[in-house]
Amino acid sequence: xxxxxxxxxxxxxxxxxxxxxxxxxxxxxxxxxxxxxxxxxxxxxxxxxxxxxxxxxxxxxxxxxxxxxxxxxxxxxxxxxxxxxxxxxxxxxxxxxxxxxxxxxxxxxxxxxxxxxxxxxxxxxxxxxxxxxxxxxxxxxxxxxxxxxxxxxxxxxxxxxxxxxxxxxxxxxxxxxxxxxxxxxxxxxxxxxxxxxxxxxxxxxxxxxxxxxxxxxxxxxxxxxxxxxxxxxxxxxxxxxxxxxxxxxxxxxxxxxxxxxxxxxxxxxxxxxxxxxxxxxxxxxxxxxxxxxxxxxxxxxxxxxxxxxxxxxxxxxxxxxxxxxxxxxxxxxxxxxxxxxxxxxxxxxxxxxxxxxxxxxxxxxxxxxxxxxxxxxxxxxxxxxxxxxxxxxxxxxxxxxxxxxxxxxxxxxxxxxxxxxxxxxxxxxxxxxxxxxxxxxxxxxxxxxxxxxxxxxxxxxxxxxxxxxxxxxxxxxxxxxxxxxxxxxxxxxxxxxxxxxxxxxxxxxxxxxxxxxxxxxxxxxxxxxxxxxxxxxxxxxxxxxxxxxxxxxxxxxxxxxxxxxxxxxxxxxxxxxxxxxxxxxxxxxxxxxxxxxxxxxxxxxxxxxxxx
Length: 612
Description:
Layout: E1 2-5, H1 6-11, H2 17-20, E2 23-27, E3 31-33, E4 36-38, E5 43-50, E6 58-64, E7 70-76, E8 80-85, H3 94-99, H4 101-104, E9 107-108, E10 120-121, E11 127-131, E12 138-142, E13 165-166, H5 167-171, E14 180-186, E15 207-223, E16 232-236, E17 242-245, E18 249-252, H6 253-262, E19 267-270, E20 290-304, E21 310-321, H7 331-343, E22 346-351, E23 355-360, E24 367-368, H8 370-376, E25 381-387, E26 403-418, E27 421-428, E28 436-439, E29 455-456, E30 459-462, H9 464-473, H10 489-522, H11 555-559, H12 596-611
Parallel strand pairs: 27-29
Antiparallel strand pairs: 1-8, 2-5, 2-8, 3-4, 5-6, 6-7, 9-10, 11-12, 13-28, 14-15, 14-28, 15-16, 15-26, 16-30, 17-24, 17-25, 18-23, 19-20, 19-23, 20-21, 21-22, 25-26, 26-27
């Protein structure tokens, strides 16, 4: 955007001149200041404005030369020419641009050029909201609409107009305005934060009874993630049920450290084994070990970084506690045992980046009210409802194995009810519910000066959107957990090479054993094709078994009682007689003579196979 003078360019800066410095501009023509001559297109950076009494104000600028030489020059504000401000890296939102008349006169482009690369001139389009005396809905029309408007205020003095109020404006009304009957002009948005039974009743043209306004302390609870969908509840501190603490679960040492800052003398139990890694300083932990958290300190790691320097990391100092014996002991023995345990406390250092599984050890089984939990313990806190609120028809918090109190809030609210059930009230939260109403002159549904005894809803189910918005407003500046230190790559490579060599040797051994086994399997017929059936015997062949060849007997065989094996020929050695009884002891087989019954069975089996 070209300017005709330096003074005009400075007067149209988007924000205060002192806050917008420095900025850069160029001149489209040559400029001469004493002995200094600047060519066209030379960039000048405005550093400050110098004011002198009785003299013209000067602009002190910084100029860079071609050989990276720099100089400072003072330019009078009255200097004329054609000046253009260089594109600035400063970013603005649409709200900031529309709120500043100087910014609206300037040109912009999107930060992300993927949307649009062209230069933009932004101009506001106003919207007028109006309401008619015959209609109760709010009308909206743009300011660019070409209509003729006539002021008729003096003529229509008797016309009655309703005043639309949002819930925030209802809170600003005086206490004397309540209770009152209000009519809903605009329904809540479809994307609501509530999952309550009264939400579908907030329909346009429906009446509401607004009893009073106030501020109620509340807590946000959530159920644990599991097979069922996670649920969220907004619970008033007036809830009459009783709670019992539940042990918290931690999946890292960092989570244990955060809990130890909130709980004094925190004791946790290990729920999963952890292997010891000396290089990273990770100690070995076994299931059931109890650790008492002492303090957060620093520890030196045995491994070195790539530069060969020792590394130190943040760690949690713990005492490894001994498990108490189950047998009953006297008081003197118990005190002696405690003294021994204190003397034999073993210190354990757990790096904050260490992954692990722990569960909190609770030393009491007391019941608490909801208001007492917030006073004695810090949030978040895991609890379970052990006795329901008797004033509630159905207590939605009963039945959950564990509920987590995520946080507390102090919410301004409006106590409201429907005309058909004026004694059943609920809370309208202006911060989380968009609703437009108008006060009416309708009578209240109860006798004058006889207010009913109201029952206010204490538990409201919320959506996950409400939970995420609540977390955004909460602990958004929490520091991330620490990262593990960098290890020396040479040592890690040696470990990897060793592991690879061991893997290769074991793999070769397995392949060798596998090859031997494969050769044995190949000898079987399972890996070959199916053998063809045996050929049928030629005609005229006798089906009787082959004749048996008689065996030659030795002198020892003749004297032995057992008959020799006539099927297999075995080289038998002569052995001395034992107890004057000769026997074929050294033979590998000592079969008995095949009788005729066995021969008949074999023949039948052969016939069946041949028939098949």
